[in-house]
Design a protein that fits this description.
Elements: H1 2-8, H2 14-33, H3 39-55, H4 60-64, H5 70-78, H6 95-108, E1 129-131, E2 146-149, E3 157-160, E4 162-164, H7 174-187, E5 191-192, H8 200-203, E6 209-213, H9 229-236, E7 241-247, E8 258-260, H10 267-273, E9 281-283, H11 293-306, E10 312-316, H12 321-334, E11 340-344, H13 355-360, H14 365-378, E12 386-390, H15 396-404, E13 409-412, H16 414-420, H17 442-445, H18 450-474, E14 488-491, E15 497-499, H19 500-503, H20 523-528
Parallel strand pairs: 4-13, 5-6, 6-7, 7-10, 10-11, 11-12, 12-13
Antiparallel strand pairs: 1-14, 2-3, 8-9, 14-15
Helix pairs in contact: 2-3, 6-16, 6-18, 7-18, 11-12, 12-14, 15-18, 16-18
Amino acid sequence: MLHTLNTIFPVRYTAFILSALGLLMSAATVITMGVGWLILPIFMALVGVGLFDLIRHKSSILRNYPIIGHLRYTMEFVRPEIRQYFIVSDSEATPFSRAQRSLVYQRAKGESDKRPFGTQLEVYAEGFEWINHSMVPTRLSTHDFRLTIGGDCAQPYDASVFNISAMSFGALSANAILALNAGAKRGGFAHDTGEGSISVHHRAHGGDLIWEIGSGYFGCRNDDGSFNADRFAKNAADPQVKMIELKLSQGAKPGHGGVLPGSKVTPEISEARGVPVGQDCISPSSHSAFSTPVDMLHFIARLRELSGGKPTGFKLCIGHPWEWFSIVKAMLATGITPDFIVVDGAEGGTGAAPLEFTNHVGAPLHEGLLLVHNTLRGAGLRERIKIGAAGKVVSAFDIARLLALGADWCNSARGFMFALGCIQAQHFHTGHCPTGLTTQDPLRQQSLVVPDKAQRVYNFHQQTLHALQELVQAAGLLHPKDITAHHIVRRTTDRKVQSLAQLILTQLPDNALLLDDLRGLPLIYQHHWPLASSDSFTLQQS
């Protein structure tokens, strides 16, 4: 009974409903008794505000929480630096994440992101970083920075250096997917589907897609969960699909897998993923299509062939280094290389994961990216493979720093979530997202107005790349790819100032790992490279 009532009159509409009842009662009192003239205008005003909130496009919060949602904005206005929302708890959000969110909101809304008084950070604090500028800055004609992925493929992709990271339909609402893809279409950048496959909402606006294939093989699976080549080829042939990404692991919960409860498997999700409606949708913790590094590379080559020659690669969060080394050795043994590798940092986000996994499993992006970049250099493969990076990438400086560490491009989920209006309510798993982003509730989704949010997605992408252009110009460079570890400087624990080139893992010379003598290389290579095998992910004993 209570559930039925809440469906008809959601609790979040309580203030509006009470105001409407108050209006009716006060109007009746005025008519029958001739008193209450002072109260009537108050309820009329509240009901008017509530009705306007319900139809407004600019605020998902106010559409979902008419009248009462204004308390949030009132508190922000009175004390902007305190981001404690009345409706949802923001107590878990760090000051840094709140600053990130504020930056994205301003860029997404087309507002100025300029600040008075100088730096907002403590420049003498441990870990503070900056990019060195030039006395002869450059002037660039565009901020549309691009790179070609899969240059030897039949269908190479001209990609932006900043794209939307993997977020599945099912984790995100239909309207969120529609807005992201519409923004990507307008800005000419890529939208990663996440492992939930390609839904009708991904196809509606025609934005470029990176199709992520996870261990559940959603969109290309047999009834038993195994890979189905025919279904894959049919989906991959869509011109909207620009690249194929095999997901080995994700940063937020590597090695864990996941389950979408049957109660959330709607007919739309069923159609996209190829699973029965109402049944638990399981993502295994590992793949069934291959079991060795060599098998994995043959599978990647098969996906590339079945897709008609589209760039094909894989995504992983670095775990045991010898497993990564075994993949590189398999590349050398077979001659098969992926067109790209996306390194996902352990600091990346997810809809739901055990706290231990989000906090303590997997390598952070800094360390993972360096290991991948250096190993490919040492194996003489770096020029053949592009590297993407993902994990709390929000600002132009985040992008510049990761490019300096070896990435060719960056993906962001968090930043584009903020652009859609995410307030970090941390209600992903409940279905009660207050902004309509991470819910399958059709009423809550309606608060996210697609054209408005698509514009914000586009704005955020454009303004971030414009800021990146200004950084590149200030450094006296011609393209973000020219940023190196020598350009980024950090204040260390002992108050020293060193460039990342002085601090990071030694840059391996090309082909250094192909030599018999590994002495002089970092210990991780001396110890684990000789014991890694292309025939197994298991560490071989000496």
